[in-house]
Amino acid sequence: MDILSAWIALIPVTLAQSLILSFVVLAVMLPFRILAFPDLTSEGAYPLGGCVCAVALVAGVPPLPALLLAAAAGFLAGCATAFIHLRFRIHTLLAGILITTMLYSINLRILGKANLPVFNEPKIYDWLAGLSLTGSWAKILLAGGLALITCLALNLWFATERGTAMRAVGANSDMAEAQGINVWRATIGGIGLAGAAAALGGGLMVQSQGFADVNMGLGVLINALAALMIGEAIVGRRTVMRQVAAPFVGALVYYQLISICLAAGLPPGDLKIATGVFVLAMLAAPTLGLRRKGGGTPAKESFRE
Amino acid sequence: MLQIRDARRVFFRGMPDEKVALDGLSLKLARGDFAVVIGSNGAGKSTMMNAVSGALMLDQGSITINGTDVTAMPVHDRARHVARVFQDPMKGTAASMTIAENMLLAEMRQTPARLRRGLTPARRETYREHLSYLGLGLENRLDTPVSLLSGGQRQSLSLVMAVSGEPDILLLDEHTAALDPRTADLVLNATLRAVSALKLTTMMVTHNMAHAIDYGNRIIMLDAGKVLLELSGEEKARATVPDLIGHFSVKSDRMLLGA
Q1: Would you state the pLDDT for residue B16?
Q2: ipTM for the complex?
Q3: CA B226 from chain center: how many Å?
């Protein structure tokens, strides 16, 4: 009973956290699944967004423009990764690692020190104070609303001509090029969009926790990947709508699982092994025949070199 | 319509295995010409196709389509003029996308993608009609992912996609070579019907000499990166399979002696 009540008490906090981090899961899904461009940039773009947002808040920028600045910075980081892959033919994963490594120094420069508190600056969540919503519920409503809007907007985007063209670049880039699609523009734009999503998550997190830290990105990528795998196991990947919904569903479920682990008394240090087990279970399930047909992840995928 | 002037392309320049793929190749196709391109392996057929489509840039020379110099134009811009069907059915379609989405991509060769709805009901109706000409029933499977189609069905779809929007130049790169004989016939017949109905300027690479004799109005034989033989009109009508193969043996003898 203790575990249950401890978990229930954690639900609002966990929900708020998972909705904020669902943007990072989205930032992993877009390059990986839509553009066939496995990418690690979000590990650097997420703290970049956090640092830019914190510095902007301290400089007196209102909460929403601060988030937009964060997203713009993340967009540039994503563009940089895509560009060095396309121009110098560096493997996508290595390109992301390079940018993430360089971003650590940049983030430290932006922040000026390792940690910057923004407790007293106005936050975007204050907007809902008028509805007498405070604490976690304000965050849940705001981040949840933003996630819902993003999810719907992406669905609309992928139904447009340009969105279809972007998907084609991931499905078969040579073919896409032969059909008149500018592969560079679609790739740079798409990876940039993912970077913006990760940075937006970072900005939302800084406004939620009240401080920015250069190390806030540590391990965020593997969490996001775990959430994505869980989300895809639940909603599948058969249609664009399911693929776009998977990050959000996955984030909600994954952080509740982590919360249960914590409620059960697992020391925080052991969470990494729990995360690893979740990812492994999701990836291994199709080969063990535990899941229904058609919904699973194919064992082999082809990605751009 | 299509003019290739003095095209030159060298691979591995300055290395021991330097290979001159195109050695001053010149070629001119008039509007509506259907040229069948033959030649031994390594004669430069694929390099020429890649050069026309823009997948490969020339070291020297120029390519003009419809009076526009496209020599330095990247693939995605050249797509407005050139459509291509590859030998590998996997190359011409996006497997994870549906038949209708692939048709939409082909349509966007002519009208670049904009921020508006892609698959409108009107478009789906058009695609249904275009696909029905194949007689494969693909028109009733618009929302099926292409990965679920057979090689022949995929290649037929590639063909419909390539001829949609009536490209200035249609390139067929041994597009029936990977198919079983019956399916190959089916795809070839669909090709011939589309090319004659739309009067497309076409270059078809093949290793089937009978096809070279039977189809098209010109035969172009490449050797060592140059045009070795060009037959049209009366000459083409008189040509026989042994004649054509005779031109190949000259090359193989030399290869044998040279080796």
Answers
A1: 87
A2: 0.88
A3: 18
For the entire predicted model, the pTM comes to 0.90
pLDDT of residue A296: 44
> For residue B232, what are the contacts with CB-CB under 8 A and spacing of at least 6?
B217, B218, B219
Q: Domain ranges for chain B, please list them.
A: 2-94+151-157+170-258
Across the interface, do B114 and A163 touch by the CB < 8 Å criterion?
A: no
Helix-strand-coil percent breakdown of chain B, rounded to 5? 40, 25, 35
B84 close to B162: Cβ distance less than 8 angstroms: yes
Whole-angstrom Cα distance, residue B143 to residue B128?
11
- Reported residue count of chain B is 259
The answer to whether A160 contacts B117, with C-beta atoms less than 8 Å apart, is: yes
**Spatial distance between the Cα atoms of A185 and B167, rounded to a whole number of angstroms:** 24
Picking from A24, A16, A36, A26, the residue whose alpha carbon sits closest to that of residue A186 is A36
How many CB atoms within 10 Å of residue B84?
Answer: 26
Query: In chain B, which residues touch A (CB < 8 A)?
Result: 53, 55, 75-77, 79-80, 83-84, 91-97, 101, 104-106, 108-110, 112-119, 161
State the best of A161, A162, A184, A239 to mutate against chain B, taking most chain B CBs within 10 Å.
Answer: A161
Nearest CA in chain B to A166: B113
Q: What is the pLDDT of residues A9-23, one digit of tens each?
A: 999 999 999 999 999
Q: State whether B94 and A178 contact (CB < 8 Å).
A: no
Low-confidence ranges of chain A (pLDDT < 50): 293-299
Q: Which class is B2-94+151-157+170-258 in CATH?
A: alpha beta
The fold of the A2-288 domain, in CATH, is ABC transporter involved in vitamin B12 uptake, BtuC (1.10.3470)
| Partner B, chain A 142-181, Cβ-Cβ below 8 Å | 159-165, 167-168, 171-172, 174-181
Tell me, what's the pLDDT at A162? 95
The pLDDT score that the predictor gives to residue A294 is 46
Q: Is B36 helix (H, G, I), strand (E, B) or coil?
A: strand
Contact assignment for B95 to A160 by CB distance below 8 Å? no
